[in-house]
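Cont'd.
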Amino acid sequence: MTDKIALTPATHTVPPAKFSHGVKKGNLLQVAGQVGFLPHEEGKAPTPAGPTLREQTLQTLANVKAILEEGGASWDDVLMIRVYLTDVDHFAEMNDIYNAYFGEQGLTQPPAARTTVYVGLPAGLLIEIDALAALG
Amino acid sequence: MTDKIALTPATHTVPPAKFSHGVKKGNLLQVAGQVGFLPHEEGKAPTPAGPTLREQTLQTLANVKAILEEGGASWDDVLMIRVYLTDVDHFAEMNDIYNAYFGEQGLTQPPAARTTVYVGLPAGLLIEIDALAALG
Amino acid sequence: MTDKIALTPATHTVPPAKFSHGVKKGNLLQVAGQVGFLPHEEGKAPTPAGPTLREQTLQTLANVKAILEEGGASWDDVLMIRVYLTDVDHFAEMNDIYNAYFGEQGLTQPPAARTTVYVGLPAGLLIEIDALAALG
């Protein structure tokens, strides 16, 4: 039986429930829904990078990337990115931030597929992102 | 060609459309969105386990598990659990129920990754859950 | 390393951001969230097939299918279909359309699993669908 490995970057806050920030099994890597929390500081509650969509989007992408890297993967391995926004009016700005971010990631493969939908999130959070990757 | 196998536990209501409660193909097993319906009784419309988040969450998890088991899988094989709630105020209670439930499942592998978002669901339903598993 | 291949049917509008309409890597094929846009016409903005749920659902399914076929896959290979509606009252009608559509697709395998949730979408769009397939 192939082991399922939990991916827990040192920068991450402890999950608020019995789930893993990411798991890897065989060639599949699943990143749990990430939000824009800053790197964990001992004894401090999870804190968003800032109130703006830009701050939260960039931090969220950094948090997803940290989990990919913890599993030996990169953005190039990602098949699907799910973006959850709270406000349809944020779509264009999120795309600008998203495009600039991935323009700087040095991708050598085509970008991942993506679905963006508009949902409710806990107060203060504007974006959540998860990702599915296939390595190798 | 590897067959895709429909997973239809005897306890489940007939899907209201042309979809499968779960499918397995090769080592992948996908569980469709489950809600808190009680085991199917002939001639009776689908009925939620109860009006409370606790009743519906536990029944929903049981419904997901039945599909996993129909496909020869267990919670240990699950990579990703998607939780859809209708109310942000249910997050803490859902986590308590979720943690207690998985604490009793005898997991031998790290817990699955998870994304929780807040959406609309049909009247009377407070939670929906789907899952992706990789066997072997 | 297995290449990740972008799937871009000629009929599709250019994605509004750095994502692919579909990607294929090894035996996995992920279709990005599709909406009911008509086939792309040079110099024309993306235009929904019509204002009704029926028009948009059928065009959305056609758009998903075009990406599957671009990757050498068919509906038979699809494990999971995610349906995002904007209105709970559309569930029954969407199911009728969905059932009739898949009744005509000549499936030789069980239908895919499915999750349907109700979210916000950009103005004028009533449905979004994505899909995960495993080939071979």
